[in-house]
Amino acid sequence: MRAGPGSFHESQHAVLEQVASGASLPAILDAIVRLVEQQSTDMLCSLLLFDPVRGTLHHGAAPSLAPAYRRFIDGSAIGPSVGSCGAAAFLRERVVVEDIATHPNWEGFREEALAHDLRACWSTPIFSPEQELLGTFAMYYPRVRGPSDEELAWMAEATHLAAIAITRDRAERSLRQSEAHARHLARLYAVSSSVNETIVRLRDPQDIFEAACRIAVEKGLAQLAWVGLYREPEDRLAPLARFGNDDGYLDAIQLGLRDERVNRGPAAKAMQSGRVALSNDIANDPGFYFKAEAAARGFRSCAMFPLRLSGGARGLFAIYGESTGFFGAEEVRVLGAVADHISQAVESIANELESRRLFADLEERTAQLERTQRLYNALSKVNHAVVRSGSPVELLDQVTKALVTFGGFRMAWVGRHDPATHQVAALASAGDSTGYLDGIQVFADDRPEGRGPTGTAIREQRPYVCNDISGDPNMAPWCEAAARSGWRASAAFPIRREGEVYGAVSVYAVDVGFFGAPEVDLLDEVAREVSFGLDNFERESGRRRAEMALRESEALLRIAGRTARLWGVVAGAHTQPAALAFATERSGSEEPNVGYAQTFPLATIAKILIAQVILALFR
Q: Is 204 exposed, middle or buried (0-12, 13-18, 19+ CB in 10 A)?
């Protein structure tokens, strides 16, 4: 009855050596089956492995069974009346079926078994030392019969050897899985640590997003990582940063919340719930719409972590893995913390930027108040100069000094316009330490030298501001000289005399953009005060001229009176001219009646009187 070389025990020893040498489980199981089959010429054996998750039996080794039959029984469920193997696994005891054709356990398998000339089958469960079900070992015969004691002994030895091999393989697989998991966790924590260290140094949200995606892929954790921002008007989750095996994936998909095709996927779920959403088996996830695109790039699982961005914006940090079941509790916990840290960093940056903006705004307002206060001080000094100055020259000199000393300008000058030549000549200046005014020409017509602030202010009779000298083409004739002096902004304001444009007051500052609305308004007020002061001098000059003319007329009148008296002595009263009578007829004195004579200009009266006297002398 025995067949094949060597004894059973010698072959058993060879199998144990295979186990000890670390041979693969399929090779060992195949050797065990062949060891038993060699003991009988018409016996066929099968070894099935148990899947505790699915509760099913799967092919382990059956070198002599027909391939079609092996495929037929592969994946069979266990149960109390499921063939010989399924029942043995379920009942955890040996099940013997001497006649497959009549036994009820073979109801669903009978036809296939008989088609392959299998008439009897008995099966024994395989257990680990901890009595965990590992699989089954079965013997088939082509005729109706039961097992002999020797065959049962062979079966016992075979299940013992199989238990050793399967237990060792599971231990090694568990070790490999533990090592792989340890490496996976090491990558996971490396990503967490590296991202946290990096985002502390970055002060731009875009840089943080790009760094997080890059680190997740470069550390070997992810196949693809990306950060997206949800845009409500477009109903689109727009990628802001990406790294890894994208290959056009993000451009090929369109994710949103209102599209029924995709709003049941992990991205939409995370956005809607504000919690992490997983797809640990993309290929079999009914809510994952873009399966084909993901499979083509090797994505088997993904996790979507919501980001809380500044201003109420909603975003996602997405990670794609290369294997199913990639995201366990630890991955979710650690990567969720990473997403929280990203959100906090972005929020911190936003708060910092807002603080900087408020501080900068406060500084600008403070600087503006200081500039305004200086201009008010300068305006006060200008008003004082208008009242106290004894001449236009003194006034203009005091104005330019006030603008530089109290107004904070680096240089100020007042130029007078010559309507005949259109040239603008400096009448007064302050702060011109570089000789700027000596080396330039300024006109008020439309030639290049007349298109700057001073010429334009005079020509167009309005304030003109140049807040960036180097960037204003109209400043080309003076740009180089202004740069040497360190001036970057300029403004000019027309001044008037008796209603006509007289010239302009021009000021220079070192800061680009110095002249805002408050500065322009106050400087325009300065120009008006200067115009008022010049008009005052003109009015005072006119008043003084009138007084001088009056004094001259009164002197002439007195001369005429004296001349008339002299004539009275020389020629006698009968020759008194009519003109003298005209002046004295209403007076009881010898002096002419000045009160009456003031009906006419005194000079005119005096001239008439003198003329009458002279005519009388020559009659």
A: exposed
